[in-house]
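fwd from M.: "can u put these together and see what the complex looks like"

so here's what she sent:
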Amino acid sequence: MKRYSNEHEWAILDGEVASIGLSAYAVDQLGDITFVELPEIGTTGSKDDSIAFIESVKAASDIYTPLSGEVVEVNEDLEDTPELLNEAAETTWIFKLKVSNASEFETLMDEASYKAYIETL
Amino acid sequence: MSELRRTALFEQHEKLGAKNIGFCGWEMPVQYEGILKEHEACRNGVALFDTSHMGEFFFEGDLLSSGVNEATTVDVLALPIGKCKYGFLLNENGGVIDDLIIYKADKDRLMFVVNASRIDIDFKTIDERLHSGSFTDASDQTSKLDIQGPKAKEILQEFVPFDLDELGFFSFKESEIMNSFALISRTGYTGELGYEVYVDNKTAPLLWEKLIERGAVPAGLGARDVLRLEMGYSLYGQELDKNTTPIEAGVGFFVKYDKDFAGKAALLKQKEQGAPRKSIAFKTNSKRAPRHDMEIWQNNQKIGVVTSGTFSPCLKSGIGIGSVDSKLFDKELPLEINTGRNMQAISLEKLPFYKK
């Protein structure tokens, strides 16, 4: 099950590890992605902390972790091929978190709610 | 906030799925399929830009006695008929009211092409500097299409009744396209071979569609900004503004002093005494792009700001132009920008960033 934050990150929770990515909507708004600053493994963040950063040709944006936890893995492919996000934002995870409070996942939007949410933007 | 204005090509942009932004009061396409693809088309194929938001003024009268030759830095008396020239409309302090191109259509006839955001102030300023002649603003009736890239000539040629090889750089011809009056000039803002085509608002959509049918790739303001920055060209509102002289912006070499013009005394004084600020060009040597308004640091102090920045697809690096304090800046010492997340080292570069 996939859920979304207001800041356009998605999360898929598998046991106590969540994969985090950016929604296709957010990537489309940014345009051609040129750079992703990945968090360091071991970084801890609370829900909605900025822990990564993304740039496109003409824009830049923070990536906020939608869940609290510790970064246990980062998608190193994005260092050389950040355009993977343009090709497949919804299936390209950026980092994985060992979550510290799994109940936060339930506070995120499901796909239908997120779809309704971006309609309002 | 008043409603955004639209060019005669707005429907065409919608059909192409353009992503629009508000730009200087206009709703303009920032991109169609993507900035990188559009940039690539311009560098290696052919790209088509709608720049109809820009302003066009016409002057008719005596170039010697009307005051028109002193209104801007461009020497219209020395300019040959059929040629155009880049220059500045300055205030008395030497600050840039606008940068512009003046076309000499005849011994007593000129066209001024100015930035969209500056149309009103430019028209008023020039008009006040004229003692005679007729001066009109044709911006609302005029569309402008820029076709740029190594294949621009072969695509445009079919629609133009004269041989485009006749046009040298910064030359133009008044002619016809699709039975309507058109001015075609070999100019652009990309560093590529290309043409700027001025036509009426009725002809523009037809010509736009035909050029795209023939293979021109529609390109938005996003790609245009990257292309101009790779060449190191200034943009009004970023490198240039009313508190910055051409000397401070690093474009003083466009100004010749053999005739009078508003702002000349201030520029001469600055040449003699030195300008308080100077322009630098730099690379980040990483994929991180500098952005407008980031601080430039040296010797543990802020010495200036980034005026323009982008990721350059040609250099595969962030590139930028900045304005720094002339006294504090030392070209031999390390420089950094404050990205808001960290301090990033930058290295000085000579313009243009993109060399063929």
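replying to her w this: Chain A has a mean pLDDT of 96.
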